[in-house]
Specification:
Elements lengths: L5 H21 L15 H9 L5 H33 L20 H13 L5 H6 L4 H18 L1
Family: Belongs to the complex I NDUFB6 subunit family.
Keywords: Acetylation, Electron transport, Membrane, Mitochondrion, Mitochondrion inner membrane, Respiratory chain, Transmembrane, Transmembrane helix, Transport, Ubiquinone
InterPro entries: NADH_DH_b-subcmplx_su6 (IPR019174)
Length: about 160
């Protein structure tokens, strides 16, 4: 017997057809390769939509925004940071030695004595007596706060 049998011929024909289809599938269409969709930031999406019609005045606005944003982020903010650091943290000593500045508390000695006396004598009176006194609004706010503070921390 010479040649292929009918089953072998059918099998070879099917393999050739399969190879031909596979090679045809490997050819790219004009819209391929498809990449993943690009994610766009909201401001970029706004400017893309704003500049679609290519109006000259819109280009001027966009260029002004871009340059002012660059100047703000690369010049003004660093200048403010450097100014703040030099003004509040670097002392006027030789070689610019940096040291901590002394603490300054806003309460005077007279006010601290008044608060101390209030904290000491406030728990002696019930809250109803204190509120019934004819006090200014600041005392109405200050006295209950001092009373609570003294009850919590003094006893």
């Amino acid at each position: 017997m010479t040649g292929y049998t009918a089953d072998e011929k059918l099998r070879l024909q099917q393999l050739r057809e399969l190879r031909r289809r596979w090679l045809k599938d490997q050819e790219l269409s004009p819209r391929e390769p498809l990449g993943p969709p690009q994610r766009v930031w909201p401001m970029e999406r706004f400017w893309n939509k704003f500049l679609q019609d290519q109006a000259p005045w819109k280009n001027v606005i966009y260029k002004t925004y871009r340059h002012s944003f660059l100047a703000f982020t690369h010049i003004l903010i660093p200048a403010w940071i450097i100014h703040y650091y030099l003004k509040y943290h670097v002392t006027t000593k030789p070689y610019a030695i940096v040291e901590r500045k002394p603490r300054i508390f806003p309460v005077s000695l007279k006010m601290s004595l008044i608060f101390l006396l209030l904290i000491i004598f406030l728990p002696l009176f019930p809250p109803q007596v204190i509120i019934s006194l004819k006090c200014s609004f600041s005392l109405l706010v200050l006295v209950p706060a001092l009373y609570i503070f003294s009850v919590l921390f003094c006893f």
